[in-house]
Amino acid sequence: MLNFKNAKFVTAFSASSKPPEDRFIEVAFAGRSNAGKSSSLNALTGQNKLAKTSSKPGRTQQINFFGIDEKRFLVDLPGYGYAAVSKTLKEEWQGLMEGFLRSRQSLRGVVIIMDIRHPLKDNDCQMIEWCDERALPMHIVLTKADKLKKNQINKTLFAVQKSVQDIKTEITVQVFSSETKVGLPELRAKLNTWMNS
Ligand SMILES: Nc1nc2c(ncn2[C@@H]2O[C@H](COP(=O)(O)OP(=O)(O)O)[C@@H](O)[C@H]2O)c(=O)[nH]1
Ligand SMILES: [Mg+2]
After folding, report:
1. Closest C-alpha to ligand 1, atom 13
2. Given 5, 40, 54, 134, which residue has the most CB atoms within 10 angstroms?
């Protein structure tokens, strides 16, 4: 079992710098701004300040690498879909993310974080398309489940599963909450499977 509590920041790169060596094992975390990506990375690693959480969306403008051991890395992709940023900045993010997702050989899978109250927005579907085009496995994490009642949670889970059922590439869906930690063992198990194979 991987010890995610060992995770520490290693490096970052942006549109204007070079990515780190592409010869290890990586899982990327993607999601709309404010979906709860930083909080889920913090919950996963048991570190409250690993990935900055913020109620102000659109902050993370670079790709951050957190090392779990010498050859395994969690990759925090920039949040997308934040309306108040300029078109140029949006295009820059899009280019950075698309380039990374399409070409990165080290990637074993992509975790797509979605607010369970607002799943499968346009940008989420774009992510799924890029991953599907190169058969990169995906895991959708429906977070902030603590905000909904059980029947609403199940309804959304089934609806999202149904929406992605025709996708040929491996794609799984789970419920999560960084507040209550529901779904944390399931997320850990997924990452263990991806990063140990
Ligand atoms: N109730 C609840 N709030 C959450 C959860 N995850 C994140 N949040 C809140 O949602 C906001 C955005 O979270 P953050 O992790 O910074 O989102 P990011 O932009 O995707 O990295 C913050 O105010 C968090 O406290 C969750 O599981 N439950
Ligand atoms: Mg964040």
Report:
1. 36
2. 40
